[in-house]
Amino acid sequence: MPRSRGLVTALMAFTLMLSLPALAQNDAGQTARTQWHDSIGSGYQRLADHSAVLSSTLSRLCPMPNRQEDGVARMKMAWRDAFLAWQQVRFVDFGPIEQNSRAWQIQFWPDRKNLVGRKVDAWLEQADKVSASAIADAGVAIQGLPAIEYLLFDKRFRTGNATGWTQRCALLTAIGAHLEKVTRRLAEDWQAYGNFYRSRDDFTATTVEAAMNAVEHLRSRRLGAAMGLRGNTSTNAYLGDAWRSGESLAAQQASVAGLSNHFLPGLKPLLTAPDQKALFDDLTHQANETLSEYQSLGRPLKALLDTEAGYRQLQGVYIEVSQLEPLFIGQLASTLDIRRGFNSSDGD
């Protein structure tokens, strides 16, 4: 009997030793998800706050007589703040953002057929029917930041013969109110999502995959396509995220900053072995290098594409993004044993 009890004790100890790595990994995953949830939540709240400021700015300044001067400039700045806040959390492609096509409601892109412009023009012809509830029932092309960008920045509204300000003002105010509601509910729903998200081990891989997809999407579609490096051979600034406002590159930079701020810190608990720590350092370093390259550009996408010197600057950014991509999709995926599924952000 004593020998039998000793054997049982030894077997139990051996079983416990085998289970420790898995338990440690589960603990690390939960720590990572807790950090991700908190950080993404702060990003969503920032988006909601900036969207609320945009909505109030539109409704307050739009009817003012000085709208053609300081008022328009302030509305554009409020739009830019909300737009870049969205770019920082744009990599999150799961959870509450999937409900009711919220990502598309916030930013309808790509828009190769200028559906935003055509929808806005159609709504301007029936401005007397415009309201936030009417916009909520309309298609995604009229509901978000690109539609507001069109109304504030498009060249057709820079002339005195443009469609009347009253119609534009009504539409701007309605879209702003809808956007405020969508982003506020997104932030609230993400908080309510917390217990479920933190408790599910599979959301670790889901979150990492979201970051991988975002980096691939950035290189291939958001930058590469405009540079003529995605099957097309000619440059085209109109393939950028925000060509009307000239904020396409700022949007890309904000997305890299979002990965640095809202993804990488939560990744650290998963990479604790010496070689894994080296990978984390490489990811952090390359993200910083990419941000520095974006910050050095100093001009909008179209201006850079129009000259050889400008294109060379963009090539420098493209190289940095291209070096970031294999760290995510190759080394990180292999280290965490993540097999990527279908990338839903690839749809045209």
TrEMBL record:
Annotated Gene Ontology cellular component terms: cell envelope
Signal peptide: 1-24
The organism's place on the tree of life at top rank: Bacteria
InterPro entries on file: Imelysin-like (IPR018976), Imelysin-like_IPPA (IPR034984), Imelysin_sf (IPR038352)
Compartments where found: Cell envelope
Keywords, ordered alphabetically: Signal
Domain Imelysin-like residue range list: 43-323
Principal place of residence: other
Cytoplasm found in the keyword field: no
Protein's name in the database: Imelysin-like domain-containing protein
Species of provenance: Tamilnaduibacter salinus
